[in-house]
Design a protein that fits this description.
This protein has about 400 residues and is of the alpha/beta class. The chain contains 15 helices and eight strands. Strand 6 and strand 7 form a beta hairpin.
Amino acid sequence: MIEDFTYYAPTKVVFGRGAENKTGELVAELGCKKILLHYGGGSAERTGLLGRIRASLREAGAGFVELGGVVPNPRLLLVREGIELCRREGVDFILAVGGGSVIDSAKAIGYGAADEERGDVWDFYARLRTPRACLPVGSVLTIAAAGSEMSPSSVITNEDTETKRGYSNDVCRPKFAVMNPELTMTLPAYQTACGCTDILMHTMERWFGGGGSMELTDGVAAALMRTVIKNAKILMAEPENYDARAEVMWAGSLSHNGLTSCGTDGGDWSSHQLEHELGALFDVAHGAGLAAVWGSWARYVYKENPARFAKFAAEVLSMPRGADDEETALSGIAAMEDFYREIKMPVSIRGLGVEPSEAQIKKMSAKCAANHPDGMGKMKKLFEDDIERIFRAAM
Protein backbone atom coordinates (compact mmCIF):
# COMPACT_ATOMS: atom_id res chain seq x y z
CA MET A 1 0.00 0.00 0.00
CA ILE A 2 1.27 3.47 -0.90
CA GLU A 3 1.35 5.71 2.16
CA ASP A 4 0.27 9.37 2.11
CA PHE A 5 3.20 11.78 2.30
CA THR A 6 4.31 15.39 2.35
CA TYR A 7 7.54 16.20 0.54
CA TYR A 8 9.26 19.40 1.63
CA ALA A 9 12.81 20.26 0.52
CA PRO A 10 13.30 24.04 0.70
CA THR A 11 17.11 24.11 0.68
CA LYS A 12 18.81 25.97 -2.17
CA VAL A 13 21.74 23.95 -3.51
CA VAL A 14 24.78 25.54 -5.15
CA PHE A 15 26.88 22.68 -6.53
CA GLY A 16 30.24 22.59 -8.27
CA ARG A 17 33.83 23.73 -8.37
CA GLY A 18 34.49 26.94 -6.42
CA ALA A 19 30.93 27.05 -5.09
CA GLU A 20 32.16 28.14 -1.64
CA ASN A 21 33.09 31.54 -3.07
CA LYS A 22 29.36 32.30 -3.43
CA THR A 23 28.69 31.95 0.30
CA GLY A 24 28.62 35.67 1.06
CA GLU A 25 26.24 36.30 -1.82
CA LEU A 26 23.90 33.59 -0.52
CA VAL A 27 23.87 35.08 2.97
CA ALA A 28 23.23 38.56 1.56
CA GLU A 29 20.22 37.25 -0.39
CA LEU A 30 18.66 36.32 2.96
CA GLY A 31 19.22 39.79 4.40
CA CYS A 32 21.32 38.50 7.32
CA LYS A 33 23.96 40.77 8.85
CA LYS A 34 25.66 38.95 11.75
CA ILE A 35 26.88 35.43 11.15
CA LEU A 36 28.09 32.69 13.46
CA LEU A 37 30.81 30.90 11.49
CA HIS A 38 30.74 27.39 12.96
CA TYR A 39 33.27 24.68 12.13
CA GLY A 40 35.23 21.73 13.45
CA GLY A 41 38.98 21.23 13.63
CA GLY A 42 41.90 22.74 11.77
CA SER A 43 41.53 21.21 8.32
CA ALA A 44 39.17 23.92 7.05
CA GLU A 45 41.73 26.51 8.13
CA ARG A 46 44.78 24.65 6.77
CA THR A 47 43.22 24.14 3.34
CA GLY A 48 42.32 27.82 3.03
CA LEU A 49 38.59 27.12 2.94
CA LEU A 50 37.77 29.28 5.96
CA GLY A 51 39.87 32.08 4.51
CA ARG A 52 37.89 32.02 1.27
CA ILE A 53 34.60 32.00 3.17
CA ARG A 54 35.65 34.90 5.41
CA ALA A 55 36.62 36.89 2.32
CA SER A 56 33.27 36.10 0.70
CA LEU A 57 31.36 37.23 3.79
CA ARG A 58 33.34 40.46 4.09
CA GLU A 59 32.77 41.21 0.42
CA ALA A 60 29.05 40.81 1.01
CA GLY A 61 29.17 43.19 3.97
CA ALA A 62 28.33 40.55 6.56
CA GLY A 63 29.88 40.69 10.04
CA PHE A 64 30.71 37.43 11.74
CA VAL A 65 31.91 35.77 14.92
CA GLU A 66 33.42 32.31 15.03
CA LEU A 67 33.06 29.12 17.03
CA GLY A 68 35.18 26.10 16.15
CA GLY A 69 35.80 22.87 17.97
CA VAL A 70 32.97 20.63 16.73
CA VAL A 71 33.92 16.96 16.97
CA PRO A 72 32.31 13.83 15.53
CA ASN A 73 29.25 13.00 17.62
CA PRO A 74 28.83 16.75 18.38
CA ARG A 75 28.65 17.72 22.02
CA LEU A 76 25.93 19.47 23.96
CA LEU A 77 28.47 21.58 25.89
CA LEU A 78 29.66 23.32 22.70
CA VAL A 79 26.05 23.78 21.56
CA ARG A 80 25.28 25.61 24.80
CA GLU A 81 28.38 27.77 24.31
CA GLY A 82 27.22 28.62 20.80
CA ILE A 83 23.74 29.59 22.00
CA GLU A 84 25.17 32.06 24.51
CA LEU A 85 27.52 33.48 21.87
CA CYS A 86 24.63 34.01 19.44
CA ARG A 87 22.54 35.79 22.06
CA ARG A 88 25.42 37.97 23.21
CA GLU A 89 26.50 38.96 19.69
CA GLY A 90 23.07 39.38 18.11
CA VAL A 91 23.68 36.63 15.55
CA ASP A 92 20.94 36.27 12.94
CA PHE A 93 22.41 33.46 10.79
CA ILE A 94 24.53 30.35 11.43
CA LEU A 95 26.93 29.17 8.75
CA ALA A 96 28.17 25.61 9.23
CA VAL A 97 31.45 24.76 7.47
CA GLY A 98 32.06 21.03 7.66
CA GLY A 99 30.17 17.78 7.61
CA GLY A 100 27.13 16.43 9.38
CA SER A 101 28.48 16.96 12.88
CA VAL A 102 29.04 20.67 12.30
CA ILE A 103 25.65 21.11 10.62
CA ASP A 104 23.90 19.20 13.40
CA SER A 105 25.61 21.38 16.00
CA ALA A 106 24.57 24.50 14.07
CA LYS A 107 20.94 23.38 14.00
CA ALA A 108 20.97 22.74 17.75
CA ILE A 109 22.48 26.17 18.38
CA GLY A 110 19.80 27.63 16.12
CA TYR A 111 17.05 25.99 18.18
CA GLY A 112 18.47 27.29 21.42
CA ALA A 113 19.24 30.81 20.22
CA ALA A 114 15.69 31.22 18.90
CA ASP A 115 14.08 29.75 22.03
CA GLU A 116 11.90 32.45 23.60
CA GLU A 117 11.64 30.47 26.83
CA ARG A 118 15.45 30.38 27.14
CA GLY A 119 15.26 26.84 28.48
CA ASP A 120 17.81 24.10 27.96
CA VAL A 121 18.20 23.08 24.31
CA TRP A 122 18.46 19.43 25.39
CA ASP A 123 14.73 19.60 26.16
CA PHE A 124 14.08 19.37 22.42
CA TYR A 125 16.22 16.25 21.97
CA ALA A 126 14.64 14.68 25.08
CA ARG A 127 11.19 15.37 23.58
CA LEU A 128 10.18 17.55 26.54
CA ARG A 129 9.40 20.60 24.40
CA THR A 130 8.95 21.42 20.70
CA PRO A 131 10.91 24.31 19.16
CA ARG A 132 8.81 26.97 17.50
CA ALA A 133 11.70 28.53 15.60
CA CYS A 134 15.34 28.13 14.66
CA LEU A 135 17.88 30.71 13.58
CA PRO A 136 18.42 30.27 9.83
CA VAL A 137 21.23 27.88 8.98
CA GLY A 138 23.35 27.45 5.86
CA SER A 139 26.18 25.06 5.14
CA VAL A 140 29.38 24.66 3.18
CA LEU A 141 29.73 20.89 2.96
CA THR A 142 33.16 19.27 3.33
CA ILE A 143 32.12 15.66 3.96
CA ALA A 144 29.49 13.73 1.98
CA ALA A 145 27.76 11.57 4.57
CA ALA A 146 25.01 12.69 6.92
CA GLY A 147 22.79 14.58 4.48
CA SER A 148 22.18 17.14 7.23
CA GLU A 149 22.68 19.91 4.66
CA MET A 150 19.15 19.29 3.32
CA SER A 151 17.43 17.39 6.12
CA PRO A 152 15.29 18.41 9.13
CA SER A 153 17.38 16.18 11.40
CA SER A 154 20.24 16.63 13.85
CA VAL A 155 21.93 14.41 16.41
CA ILE A 156 23.62 15.66 19.59
CA THR A 157 25.53 13.85 22.34
CA ASN A 158 24.96 14.79 25.99
CA GLU A 159 28.33 14.13 27.62
CA ASP A 160 26.94 14.21 31.15
CA THR A 161 24.49 11.35 30.60
CA GLU A 162 26.38 9.53 27.81
CA THR A 163 23.25 9.87 25.68
CA LYS A 164 23.14 10.46 21.92
CA ARG A 165 19.76 11.55 20.57
CA GLY A 166 18.38 12.72 17.26
CA TYR A 167 15.62 15.22 16.66
CA SER A 168 13.79 16.29 13.50
CA ASN A 169 11.83 19.45 12.81
CA ASP A 170 11.35 21.30 9.53
CA VAL A 171 12.14 24.68 11.12
CA CYS A 172 15.85 23.78 11.11
CA ARG A 173 16.13 22.83 7.43
CA PRO A 174 19.11 24.77 6.00
CA LYS A 175 18.36 27.74 3.77
CA PHE A 176 21.19 26.81 1.43
CA ALA A 177 23.83 24.14 0.93
CA VAL A 178 27.10 24.88 -0.86
CA MET A 179 28.58 21.70 -2.34
CA ASN A 180 31.97 21.56 -4.00
CA PRO A 181 33.07 17.93 -4.42
CA GLU A 182 36.70 19.05 -4.54
CA LEU A 183 36.49 19.90 -0.83
CA THR A 184 36.12 16.20 0.00
CA MET A 185 39.21 15.02 -1.88
CA THR A 186 41.58 15.32 1.09
CA LEU A 187 39.47 13.08 3.34
CA PRO A 188 41.15 9.91 4.60
CA ALA A 189 39.85 6.73 2.98
CA TYR A 190 38.23 5.67 6.28
CA GLN A 191 36.18 8.87 6.49
CA THR A 192 35.13 8.53 2.87
CA ALA A 193 33.99 4.95 3.50
CA CYS A 194 32.15 5.97 6.68
CA GLY A 195 30.38 8.68 4.69
CA CYS A 196 29.35 6.30 1.91
CA THR A 197 28.01 3.88 4.53
CA ASP A 198 25.98 6.61 6.22
CA ILE A 199 24.48 7.65 2.88
CA LEU A 200 23.53 4.08 2.06
CA MET A 201 22.02 3.52 5.48
CA HIS A 202 19.80 6.60 5.23
CA THR A 203 18.12 5.02 2.22
CA MET A 204 18.28 1.45 3.54
CA GLU A 205 16.50 2.51 6.74
CA ARG A 206 13.69 3.89 4.59
CA TRP A 207 13.66 0.84 2.30
CA PHE A 208 13.22 -1.59 5.17
CA GLY A 209 10.11 -0.09 6.74
CA GLY A 210 7.03 -1.83 7.98
CA GLY A 211 4.65 -0.65 5.28
CA GLY A 212 4.43 -0.33 1.52
CA SER A 213 6.21 1.85 -0.98
CA MET A 214 5.78 3.47 -4.36
CA GLU A 215 7.44 1.68 -7.26
CA LEU A 216 8.89 5.00 -8.38
CA THR A 217 10.36 5.69 -4.94
CA ASP A 218 11.84 2.20 -4.90
CA GLY A 219 13.40 2.84 -8.30
CA VAL A 220 14.95 6.12 -7.15
CA ALA A 221 16.20 4.52 -3.93
CA ALA A 222 17.71 1.51 -5.68
CA ALA A 223 19.48 3.71 -8.25
CA LEU A 224 20.83 5.92 -5.49
CA MET A 225 22.21 2.96 -3.55
CA ARG A 226 23.75 1.37 -6.66
CA THR A 227 25.42 4.69 -7.44
CA VAL A 228 26.94 4.97 -3.97
CA ILE A 229 28.18 1.37 -3.98
CA LYS A 230 29.79 1.81 -7.40
CA ASN A 231 31.47 5.11 -6.58
CA ALA A 232 32.56 4.09 -3.07
CA LYS A 233 34.64 1.37 -4.72
CA ILE A 234 36.07 3.86 -7.22
CA LEU A 235 37.05 6.27 -4.44
CA MET A 236 38.96 3.59 -2.56
CA ALA A 237 41.33 3.42 -5.56
CA GLU A 238 40.96 6.99 -6.92
CA PRO A 239 40.36 9.42 -4.02
CA GLU A 240 40.71 12.45 -6.31
CA ASN A 241 38.16 11.29 -8.88
CA TYR A 242 35.92 14.37 -9.17
CA ASP A 243 33.02 12.63 -10.86
CA ALA A 244 32.86 9.89 -8.20
CA ARG A 245 33.05 12.53 -5.45
CA ALA A 246 30.24 14.47 -7.10
CA GLU A 247 28.00 11.41 -7.43
CA VAL A 248 28.47 10.53 -3.76
CA MET A 249 27.99 14.10 -2.55
CA TRP A 250 24.69 14.53 -4.38
CA ALA A 251 23.53 11.08 -3.28
CA GLY A 252 24.14 12.09 0.33
CA SER A 253 21.73 14.99 0.04
CA LEU A 254 19.04 13.07 -1.83
CA SER A 255 19.30 10.16 0.58
CA HIS A 256 18.25 12.25 3.58
CA ASN A 257 16.08 15.08 2.26
CA GLY A 258 12.92 12.94 2.29
CA LEU A 259 12.89 11.90 -1.37
CA THR A 260 13.39 8.19 -0.69
CA SER A 261 10.63 8.25 1.97
CA CYS A 262 7.85 9.24 -0.41
CA GLY A 263 5.01 6.73 -0.26
CA THR A 264 6.61 4.75 2.59
CA ASP A 265 5.92 4.66 6.31
CA GLY A 266 9.14 6.59 6.93
CA GLY A 267 11.36 3.59 7.49
CA ASP A 268 12.65 1.47 10.34
CA TRP A 269 15.67 3.38 11.80
CA SER A 270 16.56 0.68 14.34
CA SER A 271 20.15 0.44 13.10
CA HIS A 272 20.57 4.16 13.72
CA GLN A 273 19.19 3.84 17.24
CA LEU A 274 21.54 0.95 17.98
CA GLU A 275 24.48 2.96 16.68
CA HIS A 276 23.51 5.98 18.76
CA GLU A 277 24.09 3.94 21.89
CA LEU A 278 27.48 2.75 20.63
CA GLY A 279 28.41 6.27 19.60
CA ALA A 280 27.41 7.77 22.94
CA LEU A 281 29.35 5.22 24.96
CA PHE A 282 32.42 4.64 22.78
CA ASP A 283 32.52 7.70 20.47
CA VAL A 284 32.79 5.52 17.35
CA ALA A 285 32.49 6.93 13.83
CA HIS A 286 28.80 6.94 12.91
CA GLY A 287 29.08 5.23 9.52
CA ALA A 288 31.35 2.51 10.89
CA GLY A 289 28.98 1.91 13.79
CA LEU A 290 26.08 1.48 11.38
CA ALA A 291 27.99 -1.08 9.32
CA ALA A 292 28.90 -2.95 12.52
CA VAL A 293 25.28 -3.51 13.62
CA TRP A 294 23.29 -3.64 10.38
CA GLY A 295 23.88 -7.29 9.48
CA SER A 296 22.88 -8.52 12.94
CA TRP A 297 19.74 -6.37 12.88
CA ALA A 298 18.88 -7.61 9.38
CA ARG A 299 19.24 -11.29 10.29
CA TYR A 300 17.09 -10.71 13.37
CA VAL A 301 14.17 -9.14 11.50
CA TYR A 302 14.26 -10.35 7.88
CA LYS A 303 11.63 -13.06 8.37
CA GLU A 304 9.05 -10.32 8.97
CA ASN A 305 9.28 -9.47 5.26
CA PRO A 306 11.74 -11.67 3.35
CA ALA A 307 10.35 -10.42 0.03
CA ARG A 308 11.52 -6.90 0.83
CA PHE A 309 15.04 -8.13 1.59
CA ALA A 310 14.99 -10.27 -1.56
CA LYS A 311 14.01 -7.22 -3.62
CA PHE A 312 16.94 -5.30 -2.10
CA ALA A 313 19.31 -8.12 -3.06
CA ALA A 314 18.00 -8.22 -6.62
CA GLU A 315 17.52 -4.52 -7.40
CA VAL A 316 20.34 -2.95 -5.38
CA LEU A 317 23.00 -5.67 -5.37
CA SER A 318 22.04 -7.22 -8.75
CA MET A 319 21.93 -10.69 -7.24
CA PRO A 320 20.12 -13.61 -8.88
CA ARG A 321 16.96 -14.84 -7.23
CA GLY A 322 17.44 -17.93 -5.09
CA ALA A 323 15.05 -20.80 -4.61
CA ASP A 324 12.82 -18.57 -2.49
CA ASP A 325 12.72 -15.10 -0.93
CA GLU A 326 14.39 -16.27 2.27
CA GLU A 327 17.42 -17.67 0.47
CA THR A 328 17.76 -14.50 -1.61
CA ALA A 329 17.31 -12.31 1.46
CA LEU A 330 20.09 -14.06 3.39
CA SER A 331 22.39 -13.97 0.37
CA GLY A 332 21.74 -10.23 0.05
CA ILE A 333 22.55 -9.56 3.70
CA ALA A 334 25.83 -11.45 3.34
CA ALA A 335 26.65 -9.61 0.09
CA MET A 336 26.05 -6.24 1.74
CA GLU A 337 28.46 -7.17 4.51
CA ASP A 338 30.99 -8.23 1.86
CA PHE A 339 30.69 -4.74 0.34
CA TYR A 340 31.34 -3.16 3.73
CA ARG A 341 34.43 -5.31 4.12
CA GLU A 342 35.58 -4.29 0.62
CA ILE A 343 35.58 -0.62 1.61
CA LYS A 344 37.23 -1.45 4.97
CA MET A 345 34.16 -0.98 7.13
CA PRO A 346 33.62 -3.24 10.16
CA VAL A 347 30.77 -5.74 10.25
CA SER A 348 30.96 -6.37 13.99
CA ILE A 349 31.29 -4.30 17.14
CA ARG A 350 34.73 -5.77 17.82
CA GLY A 351 35.67 -4.58 14.35
CA LEU A 352 35.18 -1.03 15.68
CA GLY A 353 38.01 -1.66 18.13
CA VAL A 354 35.74 -1.76 21.16
CA GLU A 355 34.40 -4.63 23.23
CA PRO A 356 31.46 -3.73 25.48
CA SER A 357 31.26 -5.51 28.81
CA GLU A 358 28.15 -7.40 29.89
CA ALA A 359 27.14 -4.39 31.96
CA GLN A 360 27.64 -2.03 29.02
CA ILE A 361 25.57 -4.20 26.67
CA LYS A 362 22.75 -4.19 29.20
CA LYS A 363 23.11 -0.43 29.71
CA MET A 364 22.96 0.30 25.98
CA SER A 365 19.97 -1.99 25.52
CA ALA A 366 18.07 -0.49 28.44
CA LYS A 367 18.68 3.09 27.29
CA CYS A 368 17.72 2.26 23.72
CA ALA A 369 14.50 0.60 24.85
CA ALA A 370 13.64 3.40 27.27
CA ASN A 371 13.77 5.85 24.38
CA HIS A 372 11.16 3.71 22.54
CA PRO A 373 8.68 2.50 25.17
CA ASP A 374 6.23 1.26 22.51
CA GLY A 375 8.89 -0.71 20.68
CA MET A 376 11.69 0.38 18.35
CA GLY A 377 11.50 0.06 14.59
CA LYS A 378 8.84 -0.74 12.01
CA MET A 379 10.03 -3.87 10.24
CA LYS A 380 9.72 -5.61 13.63
CA LYS A 381 8.96 -3.96 16.96
CA LEU A 382 12.02 -4.41 19.15
CA PHE A 383 12.04 -4.32 22.93
CA GLU A 384 14.87 -4.50 25.44
CA ASP A 385 15.43 -8.26 25.14
CA ASP A 386 15.44 -8.02 21.33
CA ILE A 387 17.89 -5.13 21.37
CA GLU A 388 20.21 -6.97 23.73
CA ARG A 389 20.18 -10.03 21.44
CA ILE A 390 21.09 -7.91 18.43
CA PHE A 391 23.96 -6.25 20.27
CA ARG A 392 25.25 -9.68 21.34
CA ALA A 393 24.93 -11.07 17.81
CA ALA A 394 26.86 -8.05 16.50
CA MET A 395 29.82 -8.64 18.77
